[in-house]
Amino acid sequence: MISLSSNQSKLMTVLIGAIAGTANGQTQLIEINYAAPSLDRWNYPFNGSPGNRLSASTFGAIEIEGFDDHDAQLLLGFETFNDVLADLDPSEYRVLSATITITNSNGDEFKYDDTYDTHDTYLDLDESLDLDLGRPVHLWAVGYRNGYDQTTFGEFTVFGGTPSVEPTQESRNAFAAYFPVDTTPVDISNNLKQEFDPTPLAIGQLDTVALGEFVPVDTTYSFDVNMCDPSVQAYLADGLSLGEVRFMVSSLHSASGGTGGGTGDINYPFWYTRENPIAQIFGYTPTLTLRVRIGSAGDYNADGFFNFFDVSTFLNDFSAGNLDADINGDCLLNFFDVSAFLMAFSNG
Asked: Residue 217: its pLDDT value, please?
């Protein structure tokens, strides 16, 4: 249990008396469940129909010059403007949680791993440093190059520009990205060649398959986005301001075969897309569940008033360890959250 000091409690009492009943109709707590994306694209260089395929695979071209390590990626976009007010300053949005699901359309061809595998476990196709079976599935932010951005890159936009190494290496216009320093997205597509370990938004999790076991067909992976990173919060807030949030899925399952590694024995996942009629019938399309607070955290219960009920609800969540009370977004519940709440509450 987390408790407040007597001085903090007294200060809250003073603030309640000072501004109780102040109206503010802009704060909202919103939970949305999207049963399918508004955009999904197989982001692979040798793909003539990127935005209308029935499935999309993810795999790696491990240490193959001329190809990105994360060779086949899956781009997902969810339009939010009908549910979350767009065009606000990004600071007005606080994403409380975001969970994405995807479901595989092929089975018993790749093994489940729920942890990140460092780059050195892939090098030279030597798995001796990988202490567990299988390979993880990653969720990333999305970055752009060659003059494209979220508003101009779509399902059928040209894949890429001039590669650094022919035929396609480092050419993709939309790429899986992470944030090592600030809110500038950095391409992770060649982290094996460049020998660094990026931090994904989430690693896909299963509760029906044991670690190291083959994944059956129609198994749903769940990704709970790490909301403790301020850069991730800023990335999602920017998307909400634009009216759409985007994610990229990748995995480094080693593909075998011809150009790009995709024509030999299949040992990597295929994912249902929104265009697949089977996925539409059985609920296998990619999904997003999003919880967002818009406006002041001082109107904690989002009823349009700053009063005792906001303080009471905040205290209950804070004491129970509910991260909804993590006002400053560092995934810790402490004095700084109390201070941030009091500031928002007093500013009305």
From this structure: 98
